[in-house]
Amino acid sequence: MDSFIKFTHTLSRFCGTVATVLLISAILVIINMVVERYVFNLTTSWQTEYVIYSLAGATFIGSPYVLLEKGHVNVELLPHYLDYKGKLILAIICSVLSLIFCTVIFVLACHLWIDAYTNNHTTGTLWNAPLWKLYISLPIGFFVMILQYLADIISLVTKKEMPFPPAKLEEIIE
User: Taking the domains of the chain in order of start, what are their residue ranges?
Assistant: First the structure.
């Protein structure tokens, strides 16, 4: 189990790196677009689409890293009033529900990606990029999210991870 958790954490960190590269490339393409338009008075054709798709890709591929770092938004009002066991049960229930949600989205994303690949769908714009290349970030991101949720659930069940930040110092000692 420890090797699975370590592998998943490494994969999630790699996804965070890929998302960072996509964000940086989007910034560079925006700079390129501004220079082409306003300095050289040229038209731009592919830049806007690239930025949109790279930001979407960064969002989906970067999500497992955000989950690894506990960066998603949490409402911790209820856990604040629960003891350790209550927090643990709540965290497991929330993680399992999120795992189910991510699995459903993963299956739907695979269908979308396969359809775009087999039917050779394109953006239909001047750039006319193949959509399967753009949609691949959905199944990749959600697959790694599934792995990250499984690793989180295993960490919670084996008590290698706290379910929520402890309200009191005594909860850390337990």
Answer: 2-173
Q: Give yes or no for residue 130 having a pLDDT over 70.
A: yes
DSSP states of 156-167 as a string?
HHTTSS-SS--S
**Of 50, 24, 23, residue with least CA distance to 36:** 50
Other C-beta atoms lying within 10 Å of the C-beta of residue 95:
21
Report pLDDT digits (tens) over 62-114. 999 999 998 877 777 788 788 889 888 989 999 999 999 999 999 999 999 99
Average pLDDT over the chain reads: 90
Q: How far apart, in whole angstroms, are the C-alpha atoms of residue 27 and residue 42?
A: 19
Asked if residues 12 and 65 have their Cβ atoms less than 8 Å apart, the reply is yes
Concatenating the DSSP letter of every residue in 12-53 gives: HHHHHHHHHHHHHHHHHHHHHHHIIIIIS----SSHHHHHHH
